[in-house]
């Protein structure tokens, strides 16, 4: 009995850590694809493949047997317009202008900061001193980060424009997170993610259509296809399935805290595999931004897991992983 308990308590965190590694490395992997094909085509390859992988996951899991109303299905697909299409349109465009290193800091860190700020402004959450201080630090760090990007020797104004697109991606993701619980309350997470990804992939295909004929498909290196397969299977299908199991065991609040390991993993991958780097000013801004975001989200304390059936975020949290 002791062995089973110990294993049950550690396994969810192992699954979540694998998920964070897959998501953290996806930024630099996506950048590698953008280096070989137009950013619109890169987005289509990643999420077209991700849609296929998720459809296969639904089939293999037996989730296809669950009845979903037309209304719930359309709601999930509509959510995909914001969380998959809009988010990734800005994200991949930004990757064509700025390093993936910047994306891995701004998107996963600014998203919770923006979400918390909206909840405070609309008075849906309490304005504790820790949250206000965290938001202040986070916004100050973002300003410093952007100032560093503008004065960077790597990319200059192009890098600043790319970072602005990454910030737009974070805005889309924050909005997606906020509307998720209401829009997707009637559908289980895996199917919701699949519908959203498929809808977003179709729209990404429409945008990419003019660029597809320009790609010399036969000349693409094998590394491009390996990265596409990794993004579709690893960062989409496997990561989502692991995340579902993880939040089921530890709750979405604790699981979401592990998102703050994504910038660390992305920094390692971007510097080791792509040779990207921060300037001193950007590095300082990134540290302040992460510290502020952690304080704003945790409010200085580790969240407790809610009682079964009372954690409203449990249904919507997995959907928030679909586009990473």
TrEMBL record:
The chain crosses the membrane at residues 12-29, 41-62, 74-95, 101-121, 128-148, 160-180, 192-210, 222-243, 255-274, 280-298. Its main location: membrane. Residues 12-146, 161-297 form the EamA domain. It is a multi-pass membrane protein. It is found in: Membrane. InterPro entries: AA-Vitamin_Transporters, EamA_dom, EmrE-like. It comes from the Bacteria. Keywords: Membrane, Transmembrane, Transmembrane helix. Pfam families: EamA. Belongs to the EamA transporter family. This is DMT family transporter. It comes from Streptomyces oryzae.
């Amino acid at each position: 009995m002791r062995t089973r308990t110990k294993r049950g308590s550690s396994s969810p965190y192992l699954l979540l850590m694998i998920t964070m590694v897959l998501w953290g490395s996806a930024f630099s992997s996506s950048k590698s694809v953008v280096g070989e094909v137009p950013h619109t085509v890169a987005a289509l390859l990643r999420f077209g493949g991700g849609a296929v992988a998720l459809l296969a996951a639904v089939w293999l899991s037996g989730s296809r047997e669950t009845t979903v109303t037309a209304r719930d299905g359309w709601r999930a697909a509509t959510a995909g317009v914001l969380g998959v299409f809009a988010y990734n349109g800005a994200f991949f465009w930004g990757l064509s202008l700025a390093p993936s290193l910047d994306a891995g800091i701004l998107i996963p860190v600014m998203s919770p900061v923006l979400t918390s700020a909206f909840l405070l402004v609309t008075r849906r959450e309490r304005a504790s001193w820790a949250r206000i201080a965290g938001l202040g630090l986070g916004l100050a760090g973002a300003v410093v980060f952007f100032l560093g990007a503008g004065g960077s020797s790597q990319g200059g104004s192009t890098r600043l424009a790319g970072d602005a697109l990454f910030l737009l991606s974070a805005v889309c993701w924050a909005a997606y997170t906020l509307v998720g619980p209401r829009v997707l309350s009637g559908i289980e997470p895996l199917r919701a993610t699949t519908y959203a990804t498929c809808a977003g992939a179709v729209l990404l295909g429409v945008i990419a259509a003019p660029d597809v004929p320009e790609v010399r498909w036969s000349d693409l290196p094998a590394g491009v296809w390996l990265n596409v397969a990794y993004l579709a299977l690893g960062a989409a299908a496997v990561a989502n399935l692991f995340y579902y199991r993880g939040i089921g065991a530890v709750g979405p609040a604790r699981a979401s805290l592990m998102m703050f390991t994504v910038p660390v993993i992305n920094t390692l991958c971007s510097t080791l595999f792509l040779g990207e780097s921060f300037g001193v000013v950007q590095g300082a801004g990134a540290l302040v931004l992460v510290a502020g975001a952690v304080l704003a989200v945790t409010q200085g304390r580790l969240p407790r897991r809610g009682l079964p059936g009372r954690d409203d975020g449990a249904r919507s949290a997995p959907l928030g992983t679909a586009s990473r």
